[in-house]
Structures are given as C-alpha cells and as structure tokens.
Amino acid sequence: MTVTSSERTLLDSIDAQEIVSLTTSLIDAGGENPGDTEEATAKVLAEHCRALGFDVRTVEVAPGRPNVFVSIGSAERPGVLFVGHSDVVPAGTGWTTDPFSAVVRDGRIVGRGACDMKGGLAAVVAAMAAVHRAGLADEHPMTLACLVDEEDTGLGIRAFVAESEQRNYSCCVVAEPTDLVTIVGCRGAANIEIEVRGRSAHAGQPRNGANAISAAARIIGIIEGSQAELDANPDPDLGPATWNVGTIEGGTGTSMVADRCVLTVDRRLLPGESAAGVVGDLRSRIESAELTGSGIDVDITISMEMPGYLTSVNHGLVTTAVQSVIDARFVPNGRSAGSTPAELTDIWTASCDGGFVAHQMGIDTVVLGPGEIENQAHRPDESVAVQQLTDSARAYALIATRIAALPGL
Fold this sequence. Notes:
Layout: H1 5-12, H2 16-28, H3 39-51, E1 55-62, E2 65-72, E3 79-85, E4 103-105, E5 108-110, H4 114-133, E6 142-147, H5 155-161, E7 169-174, E8 182-186, E9 188-197, H6 212-231, E10 242-250, E11 260-269, H7 275-288, E12 297-306, E13 309-310, H8 316-328, E14 345-348, H9 354-361, E15 365-367, E16 383-385, H10 386-402
Parallel strand pairs: 3-6, 3-7, 7-15, 8-14
Antiparallel strand pairs: 1-2, 2-6, 4-5, 5-16, 8-13, 9-11, 9-12, 10-11
Helix pairs in contact: 2-3, 2-4, 4-10, 8-10
C-alpha cells in the first residue's frame, strides 16, 4: 500500500522524544506484581492523557489497583481497542542500573517494564495523540485499556470484560512486545494445583502409611502419558496443547512417610478446551489408575484460566496490521523498509489478555507491539529500542485510520 500524503503528515507528527519521556516516567513509577500496586503507574498515564485532552476513566479493581481507560473520538462509532497492562514482574537481581530509574543509552530505554510493556503503552498514547491532533478522532475512535494484574491472576482483564457498558469496538490490538510481528493466535493457559493427601507413618514401616509423594509421582506419570496423546493431535495452527509440572512440595522429614504433596501445573489450552474439561479428564485418569483410596485422596483446583484465540491470517485486521507495520518503517525516498508480509505474522507460545477480549467480548484480536519478549522481557537490564517504539506508534496510527475502510469492521 502506498503511504498517502495525509498519512505521511500523520506519521511525521509522531515525536520519538515524547514517547521516550512517557516510557521513562511509566518505568520510574514501578508497579511490581506481586509485591506492589499499579496505582502510581496508572496515575502517570492518566495525568499525561488528560493533559493531551483525552477522555480518561479509572475503575478501581482492588484497593490501589485501578484500570485506566483512555479514549478519543465519538463513542457512537466503532473504534480500535488497544489493550495493555500497568504491572511489571519483580525486578530481581543482576541489573547494571536501577531498574526503576529508566536510562536511555545506545538508542534503547533500559528499565523494568521498558519492553513488557510500558514502551507499548507510550506508543499507543503517541498514536492517539497524532490522530487527535490531525482532527481524525471522531472518524477513527481509539481506546486504550490499561489493565492491572496481567502478570499474575488477571484481575484487570476479568473486570474489564465483565463491564456491563462497553464502547463499540471494531477490533483489538494488544500492545505486548512482539518485535512488531503480528501475532494472530495463541493458546490459552490454566494454572492447576493438585493436592495429594496421604497418611503419615514411621519410615521403618512404610506400609503402615500412605505416601503422598509416591502417589504424586504416579500422577506426574499420568500427565506425561496425556502429553504424548496431545503431541499426536496438534492444532494445525497453534500446535499441541501442553502440560508442565512447575513445582512439587511435600513431606515432613526423611524418616516419615509423606502425608501431603502438592503439584502446581501449567496446562496450555487449545481453542474449544476449558480448564474444567481438562481437570475432569485428569480426575478420570487418576481414578482409572486406582490411585485414590487406601489412605490417598486427591484434590484438583484451578487457580487461573486464560483463554486463547485465533484470527485468520486473511482477516482484514491482520492484513491491515502487517501492511501498517511495513508502511510505518518508510525511508526518506518513499520505499518501505523491513520485512515482507509473510515474515510479519506468527503464532505465540505465550498467553495474554487478548484471549479474554476475543473469547468473551467476541472482538477480532491481534497482538502487536515493540520489544522482544524472548530476549528482553522479564530479565535484568530489560530494554526496548527507541526506533521500534516510534515505528509502533506509527503503525498503530495507520491501523486506527485504515481499519474503518474495511468491510465488516
């Protein structure tokens, strides 16, 4: 697609320094989860957007944990929903800088959340500012939903999708770090806790007890057998569902038969699967193995469930997003720079809030944002390239102004 003169003007109005300034302010506000609240980050974002003349609404999900909704344009027209989150994972150790005092060096912003995903939030705001200044907001409405608790249990997205009154959204772009590749789908995820209760006895006479650790080991074997079946029946786009036993804790002492053992398990879900269905199947397998009884009881609970999503690569949202990324990277002589369309779509191994939007709100969704989740997020000296933040803001502005022309959106 040729970048029109009006689009070129729109893109030229996006100021990299404004994006850097907001990104660093959001990083400095902190928001570790678990361990802190997102309130300071939400305040920085809300005050910045009010100063730009945007409509800002905050909804407290839990004490000190507000969702922030920023909108431009008419609420009567369908607009693009952008989704992000205000929390970050704990900083941890190994940093060469203060993780919550952002620095800019070698063309990158360094700080906890630079990549995941305060840079993405700032890029969305810059795109909204450009569309607003150009007088295009009423024709091309945009909303940013900045949600709490994405890194833990999803309080923010659950509260958002449960709201009784919503704006009319044509599609959704989740601004998570994808290295500006349009993610068309991801599996869902469930966190499952398996508690095995046995009967304690002296280790010298183990038959007098019922060893919960031994029973838990057999359950792990059942899970591994289930994984072999899943590997044999992958989704053609998303691949197989997966199990991962993340932690195991049990027993009291070496000379005692363990009376309790707890497993925490990650289960990635394919479209059409539910955590309840997965747990029901696991219970049936445990019963068939005759693991329970004779002093052994098993309880299985679901501590978190996040749906996945899949959008066709031929969907107008996907093709528009891909072309907008290409056009956002234009060079002075008018040629586009960067990858080809075929290289700019992918499937994600991670999960995110976009699955809730697609599944519970029925809105076509992609994930697209600045930063490399595998190489930069959740690690010491997390960083994001300033150029990619600018390219992201340009792409978001193009998506917002081009999407209304697509049939059915």
